[in-house]
């Protein structure tokens, strides 16, 4: 009770409150303050407390106990008798005020007695004890004074209790929340919790302290650190023999096989001797060891090719990631001296890290001895000091046919002669001569057969270079070796002695199309092609939820950790985070969630993306990790692509990549699209903004929703025939009559190529959609971007063929790009100036008015324009200035003078 009587000096008369000791009903003495000047009019008696400190509370409660005499019970009192009194407060930082003006007080309330004046005998008096509680809020100064004003009542103030409320210290979700004073008015006080010992924040723990002292709305939590598990309100160390690897795991678990922990609070168990754990192995996995050697090796020699097959090792070491590696050594006749084979020998599918128990070795030397060592390896082989399990196989190669070419030339004929093989594998039945004009080989070749080993070919075009190839056939089939040679026929007859530099090449059968001699050769073996899969449209399911169950894995929400918002999708935000699945390494993921308040249809459309994506498995298609449908929010989890969408990524790195890198990206996209088209999936919205890029610059096709083209894409515009279409990326037939096919995807791919090579420039710049449609119809096509190799622009133009059957297929695009990557010389020739001219026209077209009013009416006149002149004409965008200046520069250097 912070209560004290003080005399009030203010007012017309001195205070009449008296301090009196009485006994209460239990006969304990108590101190009261009384006033009872009912007989006189015009009373104004004040009683004030000393300064009461606020102690940080914003809202303070005042409970008063008092008695009030009923005026009627007092005989002969005048009408001025009152049955109420007033309560006031005054806030102040000064604890020693001795004088406060009446007018400075703020009134809390007028206090009256309860309706009944039940009488209680206290000593010689009769009183009824009333209790009233009032509060004052939004206090901000150090403290306050309370005051009671009597205007002529008969009052005994028995007690005044001043208090505030606190939310008591508590521990929830392993976070401790301190004793907290409640806020003013109805405000909640937000309180950060502190993680208890041996725990760490999973999500920042918070709670709200309500005005009445209760805790509300716990958010976030702490989790026990690795090596500790949760016990009600604290973290307890894992016992020996158990471990907990990650803070997000709930409990300590027994050490997996072949491992142990001897001390408390282990975050992982140590492998037994001879056993190991690979870096990427989850801690929950048993420790493993390297595999034993491969067994039952079989070698099949086919001339200079060897096929090696073997059985997997008997002891896999407890792992599933067995691979094989081969060492090849060539041995001299007596097998005593062996040396590494060198790079001339080829392994199919590869020499190291084979996942199948078979390999084909090609390009061996004929009639030689080889020794192959086949090692079996797994994820812990590199960690183990013991020698690897390996077997050795020795083979001897052979050769059936070898031919040597001789030639004699005249103006329009040539005579070829060759020697048969040294040791033919059976009798030679015939020789086959194939020839074609160099540079035209795939289109136009001629095959001639003969039993002799001389042949004259005539009717050739003078002045032309031909390539001749000869091979022998025995009863066993055609020989694999073919001699090839190019010969130029001179326009006038001349007999030349040629120095024969023969290039030998292995030859594929079936023989056409001819493979270029520089390609690595292959032995043929039956290869099983995977059956081609077709995409199933989720709408073919009666129950769309079944499609989700069939194609997408349900993920438990507890294995997902959301970290930050990275974008906005059609249905809600897109976040990044981590996913940790049982027995798997934690991975970064993107999490799309369905915002609250969705309709059934929205939920279906949202999840349709997962049931489409879940059907794909390709390195250039965004991978679905799974979905969360059993609890809210509904989420789609995909692999995380660090560099985000391709268009923004390219704009950010304008001009920073080599052409090969750009072609590599395009190759990836084409490969993903080939996969989709092989599955008969038509994307309809292929654009750089729908390609995602990871940290290794790998591009992946994304955005597979059903309603996607209709609603999601901000580029989509309504067409006259209804439906929303991203005009700039869409082929004419798809715009005109919604004919969406893989061929229309190819058109869009061409636009993506253009976007990539121009580093995210907007296709057709600022032209309107209507103008784009018109221009395309009139045969206009986007010009080559700056520094674009001719071959790439040609490929774009091919993709933009009006007739959709004339456009290349994605398979052909991949092949073309692969060839460019292997032979980058063809990328050196940059697109010519007529494109620059076109580009310049397009750019200047936007500024036509500005140019003409500044007096630039011919192209000639702009050739030497400067940046300051451009700025004067309101060409202020740096990108446009740059493009216009670089185009005119290249026109200057080429001396082009064109009238516009
Ligand atoms: P969407 O709804 O698929 O168009 O996604 C919206 C945005 O979120 C995209 O433009 C990207 O910037 C980002 N995003 C979506 N998925 C991923 C992912 N797997 N990795 C990284 N960023 C993503």
Please give a handful of descriptors for the protein shown.
900 residues; alpha+beta; Jelly Rolls; Immunoglobulin-like; 7 domains; 6-stranded antiparallel sheet; 5-stranded antiparallel sheet; 15 helices; 17% helix; elongated; disordered C terminus; binds adenosine monophosphate
Largest sheet: 6 strands, antiparallel
Write down the domain tally. Answer: 7
What is the annotated CATH architecture of the largest domain?
Answer: Orthogonal Bundle
Overall number of strands? 52
Query: What is the helix content?
Result: 10-25%
Taking all Cα atoms into account, the compactness measure Rg is 45 Å
Average pLDDT across residues?
A: 81
* Helix run count: 15
- Unreliable stretches (pLDDT < 50, length at least 5) are 1-14, 479-484, 489-531, 893-900
CATH topology of the largest domain: Transferase(Phosphotransferase), domain 1
| Intertermini distance | 98 Å
CATH homologous superfamily title of the largest domain = Transferase(Phosphotransferase) domain 1
Strand content: 25-35%
What's the multimeric state? single chain
């Amino acid at each position: 009770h912070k209560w004290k009587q003080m005399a009030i000096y203010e007012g017309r008369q001195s205070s009449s409150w008296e301090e009196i000791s009485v006994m209460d009903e239990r006969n304990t003495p108590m101190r009261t303050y009384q006033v009872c000047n009912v007989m006189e009019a015009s009373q104004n008696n004040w009683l004030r407390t000393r300064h009461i400190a606020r102690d940080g509370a914003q809202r303070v409660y005042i409970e008063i106990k008092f008695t009030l005499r009923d005026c009627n019970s007092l005989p002969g009192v005048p009408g001025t008798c009152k049955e109420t009194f007033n309560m006031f407060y005054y806030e102040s930082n000064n604890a020693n005020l001795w004088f406060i003006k009446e007018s400075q007080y703020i009134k809390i309330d007028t206090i009256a007695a309860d309706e009944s004046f039940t009488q209680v005998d206290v000593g010689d008096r009769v009183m009824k004890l009333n209790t009233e509680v009032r509060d004052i809020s939004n206090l901000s100064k150090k403290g306050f004074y309370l005051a009671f004003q009597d205007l002529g009542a008969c009052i005994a103030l028995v007690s005044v209790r001043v208090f505030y409320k606190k939310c008591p210290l508590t521990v929830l979700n392993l976070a401790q929340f301190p004793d907290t004073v409640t806020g003013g008015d109805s405000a909640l006080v937000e309180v950060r919790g502190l993680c208890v010992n041996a725990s760490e924040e999973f999500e920042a723990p918070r709670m709200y302290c309500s005005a009445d002292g209760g805790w509300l709305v716990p958010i976030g939590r702490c989790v026990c650190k690795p090596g500790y598990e949760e016990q009600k309100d604290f973290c307890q160390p894992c016992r020996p023999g158990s471990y907990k690897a990650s803070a997000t795991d709930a409990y300590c678990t027994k050490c997996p096989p072949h491992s142990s922990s001897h001390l408390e609070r282990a975050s992982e168990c140590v492998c037994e001797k001879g056993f190991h754990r690979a870096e990427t192995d989850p801690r929950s996995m048993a420790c493993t060891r390297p595999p034993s050697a491969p067994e039952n090796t079989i070698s099949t020699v086919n001339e200079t090719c060897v096929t090696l097959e073997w059985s997997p090792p008997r002891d896999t070491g407890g792992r599933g990631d067995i691979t094989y590696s081969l060492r090849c050594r060539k041995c001299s006749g007596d097998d005593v001296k062996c040396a590494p084979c060198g790079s001339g020998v080829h392994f199919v599918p590869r020499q190291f890290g084979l996942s199948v128990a078979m390999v084909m070795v090609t390009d061996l030397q004929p009639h030689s001895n080889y020794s192959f060592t086949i090692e079996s390896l797994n994820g812990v082989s590199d960690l183990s000091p013991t020698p690897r399990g390996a077997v050795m196989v020795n083979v001897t190669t052979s050769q059936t046919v070898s031919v040597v070419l001789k030639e004699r030339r005249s103006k329009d004929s040539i005579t070829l002669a060759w020697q048969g093989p040294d040791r033919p594998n059976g009798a030679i039945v015939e020789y086959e001569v194939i020839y074609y004009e160099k540079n035209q080989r795939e289109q136009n070749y001629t095959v001639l057969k003969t039993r002799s080993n001389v042949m004259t070919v005539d009717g050739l075009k003078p002045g032309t270079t031909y390539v001749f190839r000869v091979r022998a056939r025995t009863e066993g089939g055609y020989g694999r070796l073919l001699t090839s040679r190019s010969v130029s026929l001179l326009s006038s007859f001349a007999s030349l002695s040629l120095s024969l530099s023969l290039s030998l090449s292995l030859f594929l059968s079936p023989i056409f199309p001819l493979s270029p001699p520089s390609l690595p050769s292959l032995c043929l073996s039956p290869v099983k092609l995977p059956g081609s899969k077709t995409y199933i449209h989720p709408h073919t399911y009666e129950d769309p939820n079944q499609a989700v169950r069939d194609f997408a894995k349900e993920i438990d929400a507890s294995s997902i950790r959301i970290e930050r918002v990275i974008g906005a999708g059609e249905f809600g935000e897109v976040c990044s985070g981590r996913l940790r699945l049982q027995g798997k390494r934690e991975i970064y993921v993107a999490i799309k969630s369905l915002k609250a308040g969705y309709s059934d249809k929205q939920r279906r459309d949202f999840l349709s993306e997962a049931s489409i994506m879940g059907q794909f498995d390709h390195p250039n298609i965004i991978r679905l990790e799974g979905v969360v449908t059993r609890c809210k929010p509904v989420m789609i989890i995909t692999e995380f692509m660090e560099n985000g969408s391709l268009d923004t990524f390219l704009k950010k790195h304008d001009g920073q990549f080599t052409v090969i890198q750009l072609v590599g990206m395009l190759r990836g996209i084409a490969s993903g699209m080939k996969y989709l088209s092989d599955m008969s999936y038509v994307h309809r919205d292929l654009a750089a903004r729908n390609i995602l890029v990871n940290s290794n610059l790998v591009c992946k096709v994304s955005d597979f929703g059903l309603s996607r083209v209709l609603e999601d894409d901000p580029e989509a515009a309504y067409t006259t025939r209804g439906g929303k279409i991203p005009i700039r990326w869409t082929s004419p037939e798809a715009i005109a009559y919604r004919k969406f096919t893989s061929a229309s995807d190819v058109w869009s791919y061409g636009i993506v190529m253009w976007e990539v090579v121009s580093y995210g420039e907007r296709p057709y710049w600022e032209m309107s959609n209507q103008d784009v449609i018109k221009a395309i119809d009139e045969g206009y096509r986007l010009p080559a971007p700056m520094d674009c190799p001719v071959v790439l622009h040609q490929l774009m133009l091919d993709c933009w063929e009006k007739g959709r059957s004339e456009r290349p297929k994605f398979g052909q695009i991949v092949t073309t790009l692969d060839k460019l990557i292997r032979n980058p010389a063809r990328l050196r020739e940059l697109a010519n100036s007529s494109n620059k001219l076109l580009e310049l026209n397009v750019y200047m077209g936007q500024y036509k008015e500005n140019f003409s009013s500044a007096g630039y009416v011919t192209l000639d006149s702009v050739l030497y324009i400067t940046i300051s002149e451009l700025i004067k004409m309101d060409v202020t965008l740096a990108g446009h200035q740059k493009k216009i200046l670089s185009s005119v520069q290249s026109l200057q250097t080429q001396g082009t003078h064109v009238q516009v």
